């Protein structure tokens, strides 16, 4: 019989394989970007709540962790939506 931890682990594995499949699909665009952001958020939530056991931790610590995840997700969106502007701002010459 499979326990809760094993089910979470298999879910994480499935999400990772889905992300790899999406990366190999070659379909760049907003749908892919939003799918990646969704996968980041779901996987991070599972890891933070179940493997780091932060579900009942201090709310400030939990907020910092989820804030970090939110920042990563936001950076993925920004890097897709404004990649040309970012390239111009960070290129010498």
Task: Offer a quick outline of the entry.
By secondary structure, this protein is mainly alpha-helical. The chain is built from four helices and no strands.
SSE diagram, text form:
Layout: H1 4-25, H2 30-51, H3 59-81, H4 83-90
Structural summary, described in words:
About 80% of the residues lie in helices and about 0% in strands. It is mainly alpha-helical and about 90 residues long. The protein has one domain (about 5-90). The radius of gyration is 16 Å and the shape is flat. The mean pLDDT is about 90.
What are the defining features of this structure?
single chain, 93 residues, mainly alpha, 4 helices, 81% helix, flat
- Overall mean confidence score, pLDDT: 92
User: Total number of β-strand segments?
Assistant: 0
Choose one word for the global shape: flat
Note the main sheet: none
The residue fraction in helices comes out at over 70%
What is the alpha-carbon Rg in Å? 16 Å
Run of helices and strands: HHHH
Helix and strand composition category? mainly alpha
What fraction of residues sit in β-strands? under 5%
Low-pLDDT ranges: none
* CA(first)-CA(last) distance: 62 Å
Determine the number of helices (DSSP H or I, runs of at least 4 residues).
4
Q: Tell me the number of structural domains.
A: 1
């Amino acid at each position: 019989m499979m326990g809760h931890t094993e089910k979470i682990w298999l879910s994480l594995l499935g999400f990772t394989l889905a992300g790899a499949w999406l990366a190999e699909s070659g379909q760049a665009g907003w749908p892919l970007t939003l799918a990646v952001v969704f996968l980041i958020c779901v996987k991070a939530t599972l890891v933070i709540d179940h493997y780091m056991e932060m579900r009942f931790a201090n709310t400030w610590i939990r907020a910092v962790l989820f804030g970090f995840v939110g920042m990563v997700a936001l950076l993925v969106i920004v890097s897709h939506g404004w990649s040309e502007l970012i390239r111009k701002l960070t290129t010498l010459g």
